[in-house]
Amino acid sequence: MASSNNSGETVQALNGGSADLGNGKKQIFLNAFDMSTIGHLSPGQWKNPADKSATKRTLNYWIELAKLLEKGGFNALFLADTYGGYDTYEQSLDNCIRRAAQWPMTDPTIPITAMAAVTKNLSFAITASTSFEPPFLLAKRFSSLDHFTQGQFGWNIVTSWKKAAFKAIGLENPIEHDERYHQADEYLRVLYKLWEGSWAEDAISPDPANDSYADPDKIRTIKHQGKYYTLDSRHIVDPSPQRTPFLFQAGTSSAGSEFAATHAEGIFVSSHSPTVLKPKIEKIRELAAAKGRDPRSVKFFGTYTPILGRTEEEAQAKYEELKKYASTIGGLVLVSGWTGIDLSKVPLDQELTAADSVEQHKVRSMLDAFTTTSEHVPKWTPRVIAEKAAIGGLGPVGIGSAKTVADDMVRWIQEADLDGFNIGYVTTPGTFEDVVELLIPELRRRGIYPDLPKGDEQRTARERVYGEGQRRLREDHPGSVYKYDRYQEDAP
Amino acid sequence: MASSNNSGETVQALNGGSADLGNGKKQIFLNAFDMSTIGHLSPGQWKNPADKSATKRTLNYWIELAKLLEKGGFNALFLADTYGGYDTYEQSLDNCIRRAAQWPMTDPTIPITAMAAVTKNLSFAITASTSFEPPFLLAKRFSSLDHFTQGQFGWNIVTSWKKAAFKAIGLENPIEHDERYHQADEYLRVLYKLWEGSWAEDAISPDPANDSYADPDKIRTIKHQGKYYTLDSRHIVDPSPQRTPFLFQAGTSSAGSEFAATHAEGIFVSSHSPTVLKPKIEKIRELAAAKGRDPRSVKFFGTYTPILGRTEEEAQAKYEELKKYASTIGGLVLVSGWTGIDLSKVPLDQELTAADSVEQHKVRSMLDAFTTTSEHVPKWTPRVIAEKAAIGGLGPVGIGSAKTVADDMVRWIQEADLDGFNIGYVTTPGTFEDVVELLIPELRRRGIYPDLPKGDEQRTARERVYGEGQRRLREDHPGSVYKYDRYQEDAP
């Protein structure tokens, strides 16, 4: 799986100095991708003595991780979350539990302030669903997170699809897919009203002589009466540094793309092939442009799992070692969940073809995601797919020296038009340490990675992406129509 | 307001050594009572240059507070919370906002891990409502908090009554009072099922040779179908040190007392007079006994605000200084909210009597709460009440040297049958520092306050109250019937 430099344009970026990654992009954003659970994208590594993912229930794990990421100059720590396990494989949660494939799971909001207390220039983005709680509760919690992290907070908006999650919440059936996105759109608009539209910038104006701390006339009561939500309240938290947290979204379905093109500032994508991603990214940028947004202000982050060594051989040896601990069934559990195909129904070594299946569309989409141009697999069987997915999930795995992996990442950026990566880990600690010690220095030598902040410099999550001063939503973001001074009482 | 030592029994406790506070109680529990807002129980002090409550949106405030409380040997930091402001006074939120009377407000769960990371023997208890979110969400969040605090987490269960909160959540009308408690009772039972009944103690049994981390057969799927809630899920978090957090409750209404006697391990009470509290506490202990619980295992914490000096004169001078900053209207806002009486309808200096009012019951109850035996107020007007409430809220204020205040607290314990106090602050920093430097050493000299833990000693929140080893619910607590080994599928 070591990457090949098969793009002529890459050479420029390799020579160091002020490289141009194409489309005006000069620098790569790296997020560390983790989850408050055991087998995140590489199930089975808990058996590896080097791996400490079973210690994620302690603060020490998170504090040490945050310090490492800040030391290396990561953009953000992104923490996925879910309310249910993967129960597509065998229509049961049993193997999800047994293989610790993203189960059990703690709440990612909880360790954030312990990490924020020891860092200054690292963002924290978490996944949260629009399907399960009233918007006011989330608005209050996230404003608090943005205050306490001093503007380092981001939100990965999901609408949730797992049956298990809906049963845990007490809803009989998942809301239908497209309907969920309509609901999510209204949810976001309620949040913009609270975050952007409720408080004037100068609502807090302490005036001790008049026993007056804040001016109620400058804090608007939001009256929202929509299809899904009703609310009649001021926002209970004064404006945090970013007001609206930096907004991420994942998913490239039709309804998902429309939603992402409207609301997302950062978009997570996963595929084994940049050529599969390229048209999806292009389409979302076009949709964003059609909505009046600068298409380049939508930043795309591809999942990418590096296995780094000081030499090619060292990296390859690491990969061979890691494979020993990978859980094939854990991989089947995750892929079945992600694709909606119960892979237990197909013999482990029988080739999967779209034509054979009653679920042609799903199988084709899965095979597309796994197929790369540089690799020739004789036949895609559940076993081959599971073993591939058990190291790095649905994203590519780059194996090699820092130079080789950097070349591969540059190729991805150029071929798929990415802006950065969500770096998955195989073991923790392990992968992120290697990125900090080997990969980031290589990217910096090429002039395509930000320097560490100087002295007291502290930027918010949004400033780190859009530049100093851009703490609040960009003017071309649809949330901006809800900003206090231009708020329309009859806005949707 | 300096207290008098009017109880003969107090003398024993004053002489140091192994004092007996009565009813077998040997030691006082002190919680620090705070809220992630500006004017908590003493509105207006934000104008006092000594007060830094407007910095509560930063982690530094909470980290310094937690360190101080641990240094002093406080039992817990208790953080109140709400989803709405006080809008009874003038039927509007305007003066609540203007006087910063518990508004705005951040989420108390957020700064907890930043505090837990710098402490070891301090509990964190927060208020959360049973009325606004599905139990599964709260179960996951609180299990996470109990894991990350290493068993230092407590929950003050509330059912919520503020109209403003229901309007923010999107519910047209508050649920009727008694109905709320029925709903809360079912909510708790769903939580016990998840926390106590879902996971066997040995469900996690890593077996690398068989690629097996946890045994799905030892993790029960909870199937709950009740009047208010439906759930069909395993708990998504493995057992935390306490499983069920230490349970607090406030409120001495009829439905509230029934609920508290069933579920609460700690109960918060507020009154200006121990003789008003005594029968209420007695009644709840009787109710608890009737349910098969040891009545002494229910611990009562009275709100108490000390104003301490090295001498009586110094304390009195502090009090006079603090009064300068107290907000009378802020006091009216809070008392109107707490009592349900809109005090704006009564002229500021007109005497309030129960007979005059259309709300006789509410007014009598309010006057009862304010009336003390040791103090003679010529007439209870809104102004007198507001000025009293603007320092220390509905609880007593003890002014004097450590000796005087300690005497007063001992008297309260003996007269009302309390187990400890929720210490309110007037300024922060200020009040809690004085408690650590002056009051706690005095209580320790009398042998009625726990020593600091030795060396590596670390107890959970529940162990600190019930003794070493009692990390889980006591056997006589009704949540214990849901424990894994004795779980009945048809339990309510």
Automatic annotation (TrEMBL), chains A, B:
Domain Luciferase-like intervals: 46-412
Residue stretches of biased makeup (Basic and acidic residues): 453-492
Highest rank taxon of the organism: Eukaryota
InterPro entries: Diverse_substr_monoxygenases, Luciferase-like_dom, Luciferase-like_sf, NTA_MOA
Residues covered by region (Disordered): 449-492
GO function term, MF aspect, one: oxidoreductase activity, acting on paired donors, with incorporation or reduction of molecular oxygen
UniProt xrefs under NCBIfam families: FMN_nitrolo
Family to which this protein belongs: Belongs to the NtaA/SnaA/DszA monooxygenase family.
Protein name: Luciferase-like domain-containing protein
Origin species: Neoarthrinium moseri
